[in-house]
Amino acid sequence: MAVHAPPASGKLPLLGHIPALALHRLSFIESVRHEGPVLRIHLGRTPTYLVNDYRLYREAFGDLGTVYARGRFFRKLVPLLGNGLGTSDGPFHMRQRRMVQPAFHPAKPAYDAARLLEVVDNQTASWRPGTTVDLAREMDRLGVAVITKALFSASSAVGEVRAVQESIADFMVGVGIRTVAPDLVERLPLPVNRRFEAASDRLERAIRTVIATYRKEGDDHHDILSMLMAARDAEGRPMSDRELRDEVLSLVVAGGDTTGHVLGWAFHEIARHPDVERELHDELRNVLSGRAVTTDDLPKLTYLQRVIKECLRLRNPGWIMMRRATKDVRLGQYAIPEGAELMVSGTSMLRDPALWPRPDRFDPDRWLPERAKEVPREAYVPFGVGTRQCAGEHLSRMTMAVVLATIPARFRFRPVPGHRVKEVPLGTMSANALPMTLEAR
Questions:
Q1: Residue 179 backbone phi and psi in degrees, to 5
Q2: Alpha-carbon gap, residue 381 to 379, rounded angstroms
Q3: How many CA atoms lie less than 13 Å away from 315 in the CB half-sphere?
Q4: Using an 8 Å Cβ cutoff, are 399 and 146 in contact?
Q5: Distance (Å, rounded) from C-alpha 400 to C-alpha 224?
Q6: Distances 289 to 259, 401, 406, 413 between C-alpha atoms, Å
C-alpha cells in the first residue's frame, strides 16, 4: 500500500519551503536528505517531492517520458533554448536523441585529442608565469571553445564561432536567473536583462547564419553540425533548420557550461591538495615524457581518470533537476499524484554520507578498484540516467582528460590568499571565482 511522503523540515507558515530553497538552495537540500528517501516540499500549490534515494532517482529520471515528463525547471527553459535534447520529451526526444547520439559515439566521434589540444593552446596562449587568472571564468571559456570547435570546424564559420563564444556567458547568466527567479524579474529594465537580450540576439543570428552557410556549401566538415545535418530519422527525414538550431544551442549551453565548471573545480582541488598535484604530475611525466597527450594515452593515465571521477562526484554541476508525474503513480512506497513535481539533486546524492565515506573530502583514491566496489555502481550517475543521460558525456570526459593532461604539465597554480571560494547553484553549480597565480612548471 502506498504511503504519503513526510514533509521536509524547515517549512514556514504560508511560505512553506520557498525561503529555504530560494536562500539556501543546495545546502537546504543537503540538510534534509537524511529525513527520508522522498520528502514533500511545499513550494506553492503544485505538490513537489524531493527524491533523496539513488534507486528511486533512477526509476523516475530514467523513465522514457511516458510517466515522468520534464519538470517546471525545464519548461522555463524551452522559450530560452528551444526544443533540443536538453528540454524535449516523449517520442520527439527519442527521435532527436537517435539522430544526435552518433556524433558523440566513441568509435567515430566528430572530434579528437588533436582538435581539443588546439583549443587548449589557443585559450592559454596569453597565460604568463606570475600573472593571476580566474580559473572559473577561464575554464568556462575553454569549455565553450571546445564545444564550438567540435560543432563548427569550417573556416567559413570563424566569425559565427567568435560571436557564440563572446555571447554565451551573458546568455547563461540570464538563463540561470530566469530558471530560479519569479517571471517579473525578467521584465524589469535591469542591466543583466539587457545583456541577456543582446547576447540572445547575437547567438540566434550566429547559429542561423552558420547553419545556412553549411547548407549552401554542402560539404562534410567532419564536425558535429555536419553529422547532425546528415542524420536521418527512422522515416528518412533530416532535421529542419529550426531543429538544428535548437540542438546546437542546447549543446553549446550544456557542453560549455558543465564541462567548464567541473574543470574549474578540478584545478581548485588540485591546488588545494599538494599530494594530488604531485601524483598527477608524476603520472604525466612518466606516461607522456613531456610530449602532447594523444587519444591512445588517455586510458594509461589512470590517476588522472580518478581525479576526474572524483571531481564529477564532489563538484557535480547538476545541483537541481525536475520531472513531472503525468499520472498518479507509486515511486517506491510513496504515492505521487498526477501533476506533482519531482526534484532531485545529483550533487547532493553524490555527497551522501550514507554512501560515500567522508563525502566532503576530495579523494581520488576512493576510485581505486578495491575501494570503488564499496559503493553501488548504480549510485554514481554524474551524467544522468537512461535516455536523459548526457549525450555529450564522451566529449566532456575527453575534454577534461586532455585539459588536465596538458595545462598542469605547463603551470602550477597557487590560490590567491584571502579569497573565499563559494559554490553558486543557479542553472548548474559553478564557483563564484577561482583566482590563481600562475607559476612555471
A1: -80, -20
A2: 6
A3: 28
A4: yes
A5: 19
A6: 27, 17, 12, 21
Longest dimension (CA), the chain: 65
8 A C-beta contact, residue 429 and residue 136: no
Measured torsion, CA atoms of residues 385, 388, 389, 394, in degrees rounded to the nearest 10: 170
Note the helical H segments in 71-132.
72-81, 90-100, 113-124
The position carrying cell 582538435 is: 115
Say if residues 62 and 48 touch (Cβ distance below 8 Å).
Answer: no
What residues does 341 pair with on adjacent strands?
Answer: 48, 324
- Least confident range from 48-57, 248-257, 364-373: namely 248-257
Residue type, 162: R
* Nearest residue to 346 via CA among 314, 392, 302, 300: 314
Average pLDDT over residues 264-289: 97
The mean pLDDT of 397-418, rounded to a whole number, is: 96
The yes-or-no verdict on residue 52 having pLDDT over 90 is yes
Residue 219's Cβ-side half-sphere holds a number of Cα atoms within 13 Å equal to 12
Beta bridge partners, 435, equal 134
- Name residue 330's beta-bridge partners: 335
Stretch 282-292: mean pLDDT:
96
Question: Do β-strands 47-51 and 341-344 pair in parallel, antiparallel, or remain unpaired?
Answer: parallel
Sequence-separated (6 or more) residues with CB below 8 Å from residue 403: 116, 120, 139, 142, 263
Q: Residue 186 and residue 177: Cα distance in Å, rounded? A: 8
pTM: 0.92
Looking at the predicted structure, is the pLDDT value of residue 62 above 70? Answer: yes
Cβ proximity of 84 and 244 under 8 Å: no
Going across the sheet that includes 411-415, the strands are 132-134, 435-440, 411-415
Question: pLDDT tens across 143-186, in order?
Answer: 999 999 899 988 888 898 889 888 888 888 887 777 666 677 77
CA distance 324 to 339: 6
- Cβ pair 196, 172 in contact under 8 A: no
H helices within 344-406, ranges in order?
Answer: 346-349, 369-372, 393-406
Predicted pLDDT at 169: 83
- For residue 342, the cross-strand partners are 49, 323
Q: 113 with 296: CB under 8 angstroms?
A: no
- Helices 241-272 and 135-151: crossing angle, nearest 10°? 150
Q: Provide the pLDDT for residue 100.
A: 93
Give the contacts of 209 (CB within 8 A, at least 6 positions apart).
160
Closest C-alpha to 392, from 103, 182, 48, 21: 103
Dist CA 23 CA 43 (whole Å): 13
